[in-house]
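Whiteboard transcription, Tuesday session. T.W. wrote the structure tokens on the left side:
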């Protein structure tokens, strides 16, 4: 089985019986037939070369989201993602944002820049907090486990949750955590109406995709004070351009789409790839197959 793989030392070191690796880089895709592609860091132009390989049967993207691939692959090609590779880091990142917000670390960091020693009283813990996780799956379950020792309660929302149940959960939420994929159904799902349903002072954490949230509605809810604040690992637009009003808001914590990043991610991605290829080479169906029309 000939497989196009990232030309990185961690992937070059992989040997799986029955697999011939074909290393590629951005702008350098070897010619010839390939049955599979392992996608990691490929830009749009390189992806289009990779996906045009004769004989292509499957693509493994080492990301959780698949929005960069959607619409680019012929329907005959099976798509797999790698959510388990990212779940713990994303859950830890969301928890870190919640704790930072509860303890006002962002405000103290701002004060530190001005060398100001100024205690605040509006600090909390997560004890008793109601956390609504919209897009409750593997990451949501890990987050729930991480939150349990803090005394927070998690309510998971899925696409099948009846609207009345969802609205009741939103009305009682201290935190709304978004872990949804970006699909035509989820785009703009958090608009002015959803934000207005939240308890006054609730916080929003977006660890899914920027376009889930209507940015103008978010800014208006922050401006009015209805929303306590927001922790955003993803934004719309993304990257957030210099001068964008979200940068200047003191109750917004922004990270540049790194929730799933760890220093050893490439090594872990290569290990994930090895296990995936071993399953395929043994004639078994690997995990992570993305169903038609799903975002993860
Ligand atoms: C990161 O956002 C991912 O989809 O893996």
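and on the right, the sequence the group agreed on:
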């Amino acid at each position: 089985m000939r497989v196009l793989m990232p030309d990185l030392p961690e992937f070059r070191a992989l040997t799986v019986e029955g697999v011939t690796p074909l290393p590629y880089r951005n702008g350098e895709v070897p010619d010839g037939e390939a049955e599979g592609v392992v996608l990691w860091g490929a830009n749009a132009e390189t992806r289009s070369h990779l996906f045009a390989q004769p004989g292509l049967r499957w693509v493994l993207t080492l990301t959780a989201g698949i929005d960069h691939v959607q619409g680019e692959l012929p329907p005959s090609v099976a798509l797999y993602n790698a959510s388990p590779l990212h779940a713990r880091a994303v859950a830890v990142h969301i928890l870190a944002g919640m704790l930072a917000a509860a303890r006002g670390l962002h405000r103290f960091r701002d004060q530190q820049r001005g060398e100001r020693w100024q205690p605040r009283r509006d600090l909390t813990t997560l004890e008793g907090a109601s956390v609504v996780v919209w897009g409750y799956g593997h990451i949501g379950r890990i987050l729930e486990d991480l939150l349990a020792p803090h005394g927070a309660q998690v309510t998971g929302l899925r696409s099948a949750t009846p609207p009345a149940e969802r609205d009741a959960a939103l009305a009682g939420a201290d935190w709304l955590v978004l872990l949804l994929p970006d699909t035509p159904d989820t785009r703009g799902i958090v608009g002015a109406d959803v934000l207005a349903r939240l308890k006054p002072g609730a916080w929003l954490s977006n660890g899914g995709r920027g376009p889930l949230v209507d940015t103008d509605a978010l800014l208006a809810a922050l401006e009015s004070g209805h929303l306590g604040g927001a922790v955003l690992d993803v934004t719309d637009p993304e990257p957030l351009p210099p001068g964008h009003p979200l940068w200047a808001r003191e109750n917004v914590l922004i990270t540049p789409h790194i929730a799933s990043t760890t220093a050893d991610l490439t090594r872990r991605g290569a290990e994930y790839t090895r296990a995936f290829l071993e399953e395929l080479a043994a004639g078994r169906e690997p995990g992570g197959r993305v169903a038609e029309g799903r975002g993860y």
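Someone added at the bottom: The chain has nine helices and eleven strands.
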